[in-house]
Amino acid sequence: MKQSPFERAEILCVGTELLIGDIVNTNAAYLSRRLAALGIGVYRQAVVGDNPERLAEDVRTALSRADLVLMSGGLGPTYDDLTKETVARVFGRGMQMHTPSLERIEAYFAATGRTMTENNKKQAMMPKGAIVFPNDYGTAPALALENERGQVVVMLPGPPRELEPLFREQVEPYLKKRCVSILVSRNLHIIGMGESAVENELPKELKDSENPTVAPYCVPGEVRLRVTAKASCESQATALCDGMVEQLLALPIGEFVYGIDVPDAAHALVGALAERGLTMATAESCTGGLIAKKLTDVAGCSSVVAGGAVTYQTREKTRILGVDEALIEAHTVVSDSVARDMAVKALSAFDVDLAIATTGYAGPGGGTETDPVGTVYVAVATKDRVASERLSLGARRDRAYIREVASVRAIAMALGVLRGNL
Amino acid sequence: MKQSPFERAEILCVGTELLIGDIVNTNAAYLSRRLAALGIGVYRQAVVGDNPERLAEDVRTALSRADLVLMSGGLGPTYDDLTKETVARVFGRGMQMHTPSLERIEAYFAATGRTMTENNKKQAMMPKGAIVFPNDYGTAPALALENERGQVVVMLPGPPRELEPLFREQVEPYLKKRCVSILVSRNLHIIGMGESAVENELPKELKDSENPTVAPYCVPGEVRLRVTAKASCESQATALCDGMVEQLLALPIGEFVYGIDVPDAAHALVGALAERGLTMATAESCTGGLIAKKLTDVAGCSSVVAGGAVTYQTREKTRILGVDEALIEAHTVVSDSVARDMAVKALSAFDVDLAIATTGYAGPGGGTETDPVGTVYVAVATKDRVASERLSLGARRDRAYIREVASVRAIAMALGVLRGNL
After folding, report:
1. Residue B393 is part of which domain span?
2. Whether pTM exceeds 0.90
């Protein structure tokens, strides 16, 4: 069996729910990112429905062009889950019961106190010769089939919370055996500059660099620079990559980099507080718990995050936090003064070292002439000082965007205060 | 030129940034949803890179199978934007300058005070015979080409904030001229049963029904049944659809349906409270603000959601909410007693009609022998009663999943208490 490196990959996602637009296809983006990091080029992504003829046609088409096909979906227990059977047919293999998988599925149902049904047993049937990857995150095992030409089809369960860890923990090591170049990436996370401004600041020779490459991309409220270096061994690729990162940090944009390879600003903030042995709390109005949620997403945050108050209705700001009613009357509840007072009061209510507060108009309703929808006041208080800022996130943006960006910017402000940059 | 209804559509998205996984493909989901509502079946979605040969190949393949092809991307000003030129070549048409488009682009740059560059003029070049849809949201016009067989290729700009309004406002009316059947869908939202259990409960004749169809799919913590009916006019399709929905609600699974066509359980709960003129608050530990966030995602929630407390560290449960320390000492902070007390105390702290509380082990750390990671106690308190439940979400599930499902289940419990089902 040929064991040459994979040259071309295609991604084929199975599921009628994708074709009717019920679900956004995050699996294709995730798998593409992981393959890119392995140095395997993705030339096509496709989605096909739960139809055996069209599925077989697309598997054959992919195998006519690529040596690696990653598939997701169609491994469930229901009558329209047909991925394994179809790929087995294309490969000319029969199906058989895989006993270790059957035992795992039975144990899973027993442990969660649910009743296993007959159709769950289907999930333990495998094409002959399949390499089976047990699934710790759900019932359907993932699997891979290789043919005599060295082509590989990998089949993964559809739900992203199963597919992503399964791919990372089991499928990637399996694929790595056939990869010859190592890619190392670092992501620089930037808050406070827009994408075109960041791109303008990059000298031409860095923008045009072929190895490492520097690629800007956006997530709400942030710009990120992905630096990717390729070499035949990891230490060389790492050195190349880190060298470019140093060059970027030395530029003026370096000041706006809040973290490197951190999942997000919340992880950076919790880490920075933990390093310093400090604690924090939140006082949220328009962001409604989103900042607290982001901070408590961070595993191990309980030594740092005391808690927070979501004082959504105006009176709760006074009842729960003790915000001065006179300030609310004088400046309205969406104001710099009220944001600052919320932060200061949260500091003592929770007896912490740092507090973040937000108050604003997330829309679609609300807003005034001077403070339209999209106006959010954020404040950060420590024992020594209070910092605050008025954000103008755009009246045409939707509620979810305004809440998301306000949360990210507030967390970044707290990082800035903590590090003495603000 | 034939003007029969579109039978089969394919979606083809152009862009190397999609193939390297930088961007999640929301356009495919959006266009698929809109086509589904028009009664046009989508049989494939595909993504191809900015490569003229592969792009031409994929356009030809789509036209060999479908009578409508919706494309996105590749309409920009740069050298790798090739969609129009490639489709024109496949159709055997030349390109020509479309003066109204050129004038619009020049005016757009003048109005925003930016300098137009030579390559922007490319965006006004059109295949001969193209139907042009002017773009109020960006520079590149959308367009459609029809051939003598009645096949249509529509080309839209890549950015979703341009594609979505353009499609809705201009392309849909154009497509509607060739649609004869109307589809009506209803989504039944189910909490408390797994997907295979729901499928087991469906009688064969409903599962196999061809019109309306009944299709199960999942989102974390929920199972949904989409019922879709097709007819030549809307009232007929609606009647067919509603008839099937009634049949489903009459089955045992009907009890587990918390809402129909609601965005999620939080929307259903806020709506149910608003109908009754009631208010609510949250007291969250392990879910860390996620329940408050979901509730405040609902536009117009401010008449219903007073706020919430995120009492993440143990002492905050007593300091902020007034939870009885003796209960914490006797039962530990993750217990049914503490969850119930948190809910009761939140009821009075915020002076509301209903309160939701959570306390649990979201992992990866924590847990005990009797209450491993994934154990979450949820409680709902009203002036009349307190309901509570111990959830067992699986030690192997990740933190995000445990928090997400605990939040959804807690909100569903509140709905059940409110409606008198629990």
Report:
1. 265-418
2. no
